[in-house]
Amino acid sequence: MSGSGSLQMFVFEVTMEIKEEDGRGGFGAVPKDRNCFKLRMNVEKQVCLTVQQVMGDRDREQDLEVERCFGVLISPGRNVKHSDMQLLEMVSMGSGSVNDKKCYVITGQCSPRENAFEPLNVETPRDARLWLTVAVDLVVRGIKEPVRLVLETQVKVFPAAERFWTISRRPLVQQFTLNLKEVL
């Protein structure tokens, strides 16, 4: 580093929703109990992420703009290595707004036919849960290096014909703090 400037803190909120093919050509959000998404085996899935800055640098009231996403990665398991993650096929990405605040919305598709997702196609034993790691790589204006945000959540896999009585479709919401040091 040639010199150093002030430390700036930014808080981003990432909302993750998992959707499954509904048999009518569309995708519907999967149910979620407390901290666990309920998935069906051998069904096409979409991972939908919304990234929104909820707090900027207090002194400058500065917003960081997500320019683009260059990858959504997913892997069964927790604390997984980058090399174990599988890149999803991108369905859509772009800017949007939630409650009059700018956000960036990304949707990636997960095929049940891919070998890397085999654990998501095996019914989970009754009292067990499976961890799922999702990472999103972003290019943020004003930051030289890409920013990776990693979410870990529990899932339970059920047979494809399973019917759920739970109507809760709450997404997973997680906050990330990004501390930036200005290099002069």
From TrEMBL:
It holds the Pfam family DUF3694. Residues 32-161 form the Kinesin-like domain. It comes from Graphocephala atropunctata. This is Kinesin-like domain-containing protein. It comes from the Eukaryota. InterPro entries: Kinesin-like (IPR022164).
